[in-house]
Amino acid sequence: MSSETSSAFIETSNVERKQDLTEDQEKEKPRLDEGIEPVSKRQMKKLIKQKQWEEQRELRKQKRKEKRKRKKLERQCQLESNSDGNDRKRVRRHVVHSTLRLIIDCSFDDLMVLKDIKKLHKQIQRCYAENRRALHPVQFYLTSHGGQLKKNMDENDKGWVNWKDIHIKPEHYSELIKKEDLIYLTSDSPNILKELDESKAYVIGGLVDHNHHKGFTYKQASDFGIHHAQLPLGSFVKMNSRKVLAVNHVFEIILGYLETRNWQEAFFTILPQRKGAIPTDKACESSSQDKQCAMVEDGSDSDSSEEEYSKNETESPHKDEQQDKENSTESTMQSAPH
């Protein structure tokens, strides 16, 4: 083969090879009508927002730093101008623990639905928190702890196992404390509490039942043969609603009395505004209360009588009664027997 023929053959081969490579590259390029979808306006907006978010990352970081510095300065200024925080620390050093035992009886687990169990759990949490910060904290007991309540606490408040200054027991309170030391606090008791005996153990029924089991705690106390009483609410307070209070309200009122030794101050510090509570002396001055005042002047014990209790229920507005049902427990209004 001559050199010219050979050169022509090589050149032809190179051209064919280039054509094949070009065809392969074209095959590899995606076609506009195959595999690529047009970007919608919504997608385009998202892409633009994402880009802006990435671009402003450092700016946001800097703003967070400035905000933290500003809050730190505000806290420092507040501490310098207001000594409340330091005062609270000084007061906590002078805490005097009371010997009074306050028990929440949780033996009514089977009488409540889960919704009410959760309410009881929140009320117990409030009691624990208030006792921890009180000037005269009581010896706090949870008895008959188990069932739905324990399960709910395990699921929603696992830290309860680390609670301090509280005795959480699965046993019934009657197995832990002598019968003669027990006083069951119930609004159905005819006994009116005058003072707190710090050598006694007061029991609050942990029952959130919206008055479905009226008189149940009073009956239980009578069946066990233990003393029972109600708080002297009627002697100091006139309310537009029923005299049944939530577990935490009873607990906090007792803490308040231990600090002030004044029932009226304890009641008006703790009672919720929706109860419409007013001092009994002011209620007597009102013309709408003339009849009740006359009964008191004649020596009638209208606050502890069943007739007055029924009358209060009849006079209470329907709205207040509904709200009270959501928060009420059978355990309340306590008093110590003579």
UniProtKB/TrEMBL annotation:
Basic residues: bias regions: 60-73
One Gene Ontology term, aspect cellular component: actin cytoskeleton
Reaction(s) catalysed by this chain's protein: guanosine(9) in tRNA + S-adenosyl-L-methionine = N(1)-methylguanosine(9) in tRNA + S-adenosyl-L-homocysteine + H(+)
GO biological process, one term: tRNA N1-guanine methylation
Stretches assigned to coiled coil: none
Keywords for the protein's UniProt record, in alphabetical order: Methyltransferase, S-adenosyl-L-methionine, Transferase
SUBUNIT field: Interacts with tRNA.
Protein name as catalogued: tRNA methyltransferase 10 homolog A
Organism phylogeny: Eukaryota, Metazoa, Chordata, Craniata, Vertebrata
